[in-house]
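Incident log, support desk, overnight shift.

02:14 A customer reports that sequence design results differ from what the structure should imply. Their input is reproduced verbatim below. On-call engineer (initials T.W.) acknowledged and began investigating.
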């Protein structure tokens, strides 16, 4: 049973890491090629922050729950 639970968290980590890479890449692209009419808080670059956070969390789960 424990191995099954660990496998689920590993897969969640993989998904978080994939989403993190995609959001981070889009955020970096928007940082260097801003929109013609940016939104009010575009200067905060939330895509970069959230993408980095998801990537870090995903890598943590992958490292914590990988099979040895």
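02:41 Re-run completed on a clean worker. Output:
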């Amino acid at each position: 049973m424990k191995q099954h639970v660990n496998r689920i968290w590993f897969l969640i980590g993989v998904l978080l890491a994939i989403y993190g890479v995609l959001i981070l890449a889009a955020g970096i692209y928007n940082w260097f090629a801003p929109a013609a009419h940016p939104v009010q808080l575009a200067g905060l670059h939330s895509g970069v922050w959230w993408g980095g956070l998801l990537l870090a969390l995903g890598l943590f789960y992958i490292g914590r729950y990988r099979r040895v």
